[in-house]
Amino acid sequence: MLSNPFALLLTFLFVLLPAELQATTLTLAAAAHGCGVSDRAQAPPPPFAQQRLAQSEVVPGARDIAWVWLGSPTSRYPHAALGSTLHAASLHVLPAAPAARSQPQTYTLPLYRVFEDRVPRLADLDGDGRDEIILVEADALQGAALVVYGLRNGAVVELARGPHAGSTFRWLNPVGVADFDGDGRPDLASVTTPHIGGVLTLHHYRPPRLEPYARHTEVSNHRMGELEQQLAVIVAQTGQRPAILIPDMQLMALQALRWDAPGQWTELARPLALPSRAERFTPLDGGGCLRLADGSWWRVTLST
Ligand SMILES: [Ca+2]
Ligand SMILES: [Ca+2]
């Protein structure tokens, strides 16, 4: 019998509560080193890449690009956001085919610019079967900008660029690529000024421009002076737009954000407090693998 008014109230709360009000949660579970995921074996980089910028990654591709890396170290932009004032002045691309005759193609920046980045990112942004290369450039007067390059007719060319961060030594750090607004086309996410009030920004890829269309303040995906650039993950959600799991400004909590129709951020879960500062956060199905400053590893899951 539910004659007791409290019992009726409880029935309403727990049985009749609409499904959409049931909380999505972010949970943390202690994990083994690397969350038990071993690094995939990778072919050795080509000898050409030995001249790359120190502490930068040589990245393999699976489409029209075999390898991509950064070169021509220079100290002409003395900003140590990534731990060193040395930055790359050139981008090098080894085309995929015909492999035996393939020679690296080079794109050299003008003297007032550098790549303020340590890892070229590959993604097919326009669905034409060729990879685009996503990098952070820095301009001596205007600061960093997100820029997209590609191989066209055998040469490396600039395809699109976003707005600059605004002034010298203002930096930004990419988050990744996904269709955040559900229009069927991949978009780019990055965090502008992650050290001084980070702004998560979503961009449409509309060559020759990257056009910002959404911003969320008070996040960060980098610690000043650290080499590590991977501190936020994108989580695919069945029947929904993708979510972004990203630290707060202190790197001591994680937020789950989604850009929903008609044009607003949804905070999918209560922020998840961390027992120590986030140092590296890599994607896993349904969440990510988190390494904290105290050396511990955690599996983060976004679940409904
Ligand atoms: Ca493409
Ligand atoms: Ca889109």
What does this structure look like?
This protein has 1 helix and 22 strands. With 304 residues, the protein is mainly beta. Strand 2 and strand 3 form a beta hairpin. About 4% of the residues have low confidence. The protein is globular, with a radius of gyration of 21 Å. Strands 6, 7, 8, 9 and 10 form a 5-stranded antiparallel β-sheet that branches. Strands 15, 16, 17, 18 and 19 form a 5-stranded antiparallel β-sheet that branches. Strands 1-22-21-20 form a 4-stranded antiparallel β-sheet, with no helix packed on it. The chain is 4% helix and 45% strand. The longest helix is centred in the first third of the chain and has 11 residues. The structure holds calcium ion (2 copies). The site of one calcium ion has 6 residues, from loops. One calcium ion (CA) binds next to loops.
Mean pLDDT: 93
Tell me the series of helices and strands, N- to C-terminal: HEEEEEEEEEEEEEEEEEEEEEE
The helix/strand class is mainly beta
Put simply, the count of helices is: 1
What is the straight-line distance between the termini? Answer: 31 Å
User: What percentage of amino acids are in beta strands?
Assistant: over 45%
Present as ligands are: calcium ion
Which ranges are low-confidence, i.e. pLDDT below 50, for 5 or more consecutive residues?
A: 10-21
Rg measurement, Å: 21 Å
DSSP E strands, number: 22
